[in-house]
Amino acid sequence: MIMIDNLRFRTLAVSELRIPPGTTAVIGPNGSGKTTFLKLLAGIHLPESGTMTIDGRLPRETETGWVDEFPDRNILFCTAFDEIASSLRFRFLPCREITERSKSVMKLAGISHLMTRPIRELSGGEKVLVAVAAALVLHPEVLVLDEYDSHLDGDRVSQIGEFIRKSGVRYVIHSTQDTESAARADRVIFFRNGTISCTGTPETVFPQLEDTLYFPLSWRCRA
């Protein structure tokens, strides 16, 4: 369980929040605190006050994968394989293990054919797949994605979603502007003005947003 109590950082304030294992979608207007919340969860920022724990450990004590909205901000190396293998190399794992684990995650992602391709030649969707594979190669307990789907078409989003599901990561927390994607999550958190306006299952949250642009179109048509 992810547990948050009286968390404050700059303009963000979360009095109490519990996030069970599964997929959680974070939605809300631009500037509402979504990215700040995700960076706290990933351990990129430290709270000014309050606590955030993941199964009893601080975020920086937890194996966490992070994927930025813009894939080029994630990538440091010249080829897809080197990017995915980099975190394993930084931990000085045996060469054979690095190769096996990197190839395995690339196969799971369906990008084995990109192994030696220069990053500069990849499409935006391929770069996101590489970034997600690099985040998952360490078998993190938490995968945090900041609007990774904002520049992708539906087919590519479905491909990446299937890859993440197959990985078996315990917690997936992703911010998105796609309310249809959010409606498929196990849990939804809606931010407004630096605080959580409502949270719960999609069936609990979206009826509260029926008069807003955050109400999924498929739900509106169904209604």
Question: What would the CATH topology of the largest domain be?
Answer: Rossmann fold
Please state the overall shape, judged from the principal axes of the Cα atoms: globular
Oligomeric state of the chains in view: single chain
What would you report as the Rg, rounded to the nearest angstrom? 18 Å
Level-1 CATH class name of the largest domain: Alpha Beta
- The helix/strand series, from N terminus to C terminus, equals EEEHEEHHHEHEHEEHH
How many domains, in number, for the residues?
A: 2
Q: What's the CATH superfamily of the largest domain, by name?
A: P-loop containing nucleotide triphosphate hydrolases
Q: Helix/strand-derived class?
A: alpha/beta
Biggest sheet record: 6 strands, mixed
Would you identify the CATH architecture of the largest domain?
A: 3-Layer(aba) Sandwich
Portion in beta strands: 15-25%
Q: Largest sheet, order of strands side by side?
A: 5-6-7-3-8-9
CA(first)-CA(last) distance = 34 Å
Mean pLDDT: 93
